[in-house]
Every structure is written in structure tokens, then in C-alpha cells.
Amino acid sequence: MFMTTSILSSAQTKSKNPFGLVYGDAITENIKGKVNIHPVAYKLNGIDIAANVYTPAGYDPSKKYPAVVVAHPNGGVKEQAAGLYAQRLAEAGYITVAADAAYQGASGGQPRHTDKPAFRTDDIRGMADFITQYKGVDANRLGVLGICGGGGYTLKAAQSDKRFKAVATLSMFNSGEVRRNGFQDSQLNTIHERLKQASDARAQEAEGGKIIYAGVASITDEEIAKTPTDLYREGYEYYYRTHAHPNSTFLYTMSSLLDLMTWDAATDMDLINQPLLMIAGSKADTKYMTDEAFSKATNAKTKELFLLDGATHIQSYWKPAYVNKAVTKLVDFYSNL
Fold first, then answer.
1. The whole model's pTM is what?
2. Which of 31, 109, 150, 253 gives the lowest tally of CB atoms within 10 Å of its CB?
3. Quick one: pLDDT at residue 32?
4. What is each CA distance from 31 to 57, 66, 163, in whole angstroms?
5. Digit-coded pLDDT (tens) for 123-162
6. Which residues on adjacent β-strands are paired with residue 169?
7. Region of residue 153 (phi > 0: left; psi between -120 and 50: alpha; otherwise: beta)
8. Tens digit of pLDDT for each residue in 178-221?
9. In which domain, by residue range, is 64 found?
10. Which residues lie closer than 8 Å to 231 by C-beta, 6 or more apart?
């Protein structure tokens, strides 16, 4: 489905929450003795980045705390799953940061919704740049958590950036593999056709024409119900209904496919020599991506594949029983930072 920026989802209504947090039990004001949220901004490659820093209850900037960088899913923003996990980790004593990717969410960058792997990977390094300078952070105790597409980019960032002392993913999504081959290898026969479309889209941009977008801008309840895969059906429900946020969208520039389709999160996994934890739902139709990357992490200091029994991909974002299990595992994993 191709469309222009003028087509936006009617579900993307303005949030009334001052922090833009849309998940259950969100913090709507900073209260002494509780986790506090601090909206921050910084520059990355000349682009304004919007982020939220979460500090633990009783935060004392004169003390030293371990920190965790949290990378959001494809189409997501810092206020959704990434924010929930950042908040829960802050409740456990970590200083955490969740930022909107450059070109996405509340961050700057044109064209909007550009989704290039090199940019998304550098977004994670940029969060590390910022949070390691934050008051109270022990730069030598830095972990990273990537969710969905953010998980694939986290693997790539950790392959080279050894500031990350512990690497975790949740419901990892290999954006390059899926954009190239289709979800569950469903588009192998159209790879070159889609590369031609991406090439034509870039040519149109270069000529000053309209930006062409791939993805889904809006969807009806009937269309959601007929979506055959759990990932996309539940994803539409999450992003466009139950956890909708005005800055969240499934759109990405068609020209981004030139980079996405020639990239793969699971290459060079042998470069990860840090402890590695990969979490996935046992019923997730995306689990094959976690399995593939995990098997290639031959040099990880330690590695564990932890399954959320009964969970699908999207349920790991929000369902309390699965979030609680994942957070408990993550806190134990990061305890050695």
C-alpha cells in the first residue's frame, strides 16, 4: 500500500497526558518518592532528538546508578512499549532513556518517517552518548534493551559499541530480512520489483516530487479482523486502537527500502561478546527471527533465550503477566552491570 503524508490515521488523536504516555498506569505527574520522567532534548548528527529519561524513586544525582538505553519498535514511539519498559526498569533502580528515532515521533529530520538502518542504529548510540553524561549515571554500567525493530538495531549497535555491557532484546524483529523477503518469507518472488519501486521513489524525491510512503496509514476494524497474522492484526489493534499515539505510524518512506532490503540484523552476530539475553513469546509468529540471530551469537560472553510462555509478539508489549515476567528476567540480567 502506497500513500502520501496527507493520509493520516483518524486514530492518531492528540494525547491529553502531559508526558504523552498512553499505556496503563502511566505516570502523569512527577511525585516525590516515585519514578520521575524527565523530557529531554539533544542533537544527533544535527537533528533534534526528543527523549524521556526515567529516574528511580529517591534519585540522588550525587550517587551512581546503572543505566539502560531502550530502543522502540518499528512504528512505535518512546511513549508506548519502550516507555513502559523504561519505567519498569527505573522502578527497579536503573536510570533509563527512551528516545524517538530521528525522522520519527517528536524528533526532527526530513523526510518524515525515514527508516534507514544506519540511522536507527546510530539513534541507539546517540542515546548512549546522552545518558552516560546524565547526572548520577555510571557510564561503566550501561545496558541496552531493544524491542521489536529496535531489537534488531540494538543487536547491530552492540556488535560495535562496547559501551553496552549487557545486551537484551524483546520480540526482536529483523527489519531488513522482512522488508527484503516479506514476513515469513512471503514475498521472495517480488524482491526485484520492490527494489525497482524503491529506486523510482528515490528518483522522484531527487526531482523534488512528492514523498512516496509504504505501510498502512489507517485501517478499519473489519480489515483488522481479517488480518491473518498475529503480528499485524494485534499490531494494528495496539498502534491504532488500544495504545494509539499521535506520533506513532506504520508509514515509512518507500526509498528507505533501498537500505532496509540490503541490511540484516543477524549478520556479524559473532561480534557480540557481551552477555546477551533474547526474550520472545513462545507463540510469537516472529520468533524465527530471534532464533536465527541467537544461534549466530557464537562469541557472546553468556547467552540465553528466554520464552514468555503463551505470549504473542505484541502481547509482550503490554499484557501485565508477560511484561512482569520479562521485567523480572531483565532486572536479573542487568544486575551484573
1. 0.93
2. 31
3. 86
4. 9, 22, 32
5. 999 999 999 999 999 999 999 999 999 999 999 999 999 9
6. 146, 278
7. alpha
8. 999 999 999 999 999 999 999 999 999 999 999 999 988 899 99
9. 2-334
10. 183, 284, 285, 286, 312, 313, 314
Indicate the number of domains in the chain: 1
What is the CATH classification number for the domain harbouring 34? 3.40.50.1820
Residue keyed to cell 543505566: 67
For residue 4, the model assigns a pLDDT of: 29
Burial 15-52 (b: 16+ CB within 10 A, else e): beeebbbbbeebbeeeeeeebbbeeeebebeebebbbb
Q: Is 3 helix (H, G, I), strand (E, B) or coil?
A: strand
Cell reading at 133: 553524561
Q: Is 10 exposed, middle or buried (0-12, 13-18, 19+ CB in 10 A)?
A: exposed
Residues with pLDDT less than 70, the chain: 1-18, 20, 23-25
Q: In Å, how far are 121, 133, 253, 332 from 161, measured between CA atoms?
A: 10, 16, 27, 22
DSSP secondary structure of 195-219: HHHHHHHHHHHHTT-PPPEES-S--
Residue 194 and residue 162: Cα distance in Å, rounded?
Answer: 36
d(C-alpha 214, C-alpha 64), whole Å:
44
- Give the span between the Cα atoms of 195 and 186, in whole angstroms: 16
Find, among 66, 135, 31, the residue nearest to 334 by Cα: 66
- 283 Cβ contact list (under 8 Å, min separation 6): 230, 310, 311, 312
Q: Per residue, what are the HEC states of 291-328?
A: HHHHHHCCCCCCEEEEEECCCCCCHHHHCHHHHHHHHH
